[in-house]
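If your schedule permits, I should be very grateful for your opinion on a structural question. What I wish to show you is a protein chain and, alongside it, a tokenised description of its three-dimensional fold. Would you kindly read the sequence against the tokens and tell me how you understand this chain to fold? Here, with my thanks, is the record as I have it:

===
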Amino acid sequence: MAMANAIATDCEQSEFFENFELAEFEGADDAEHREFHADWIYFVTIAIVFISSTYLMNLRVGGDRERRLTSVVTREFERWNATALETSKECGQFFDRTYGGYSSLMAALGQEQDALPYTVGAWVVQNMLGHLPRTAEEVRFAFTIGALATQGFHDWWSE
């Protein structure tokens, strides 16, 4: 949990956002920027924990070890934020509904990369901007967020 939150915080404090020109934030006042950054920490941390938990289940560790690891993640998640577990379930539902469609679309467009980063990033964008990515810049933002969440944790449990 701490690592996921630290990654979200590091990006928030870096020049990460300066790489994107999102219309929703042009002319935003300080309160709107603070709200955006709080949402960023919340949704990106949840996306990272969702991805790392999915990777854990895909390893099929099984039995007591998997239950203990899942219990620790769940307990820390709830300790971090009372609504995080429910929001993570919403992330999972979004993923289940959309991953296949995004995979098919990327294949039809001749894109060879996995739809996983885009799917996770699109969930974050939808929650932060109030809509799925609509512009090229929002798509790039979604893919970058998703890559951040997926690449940093693809082998976390094997270490």
Summary: Residues 2-12+28-158 form one domain.
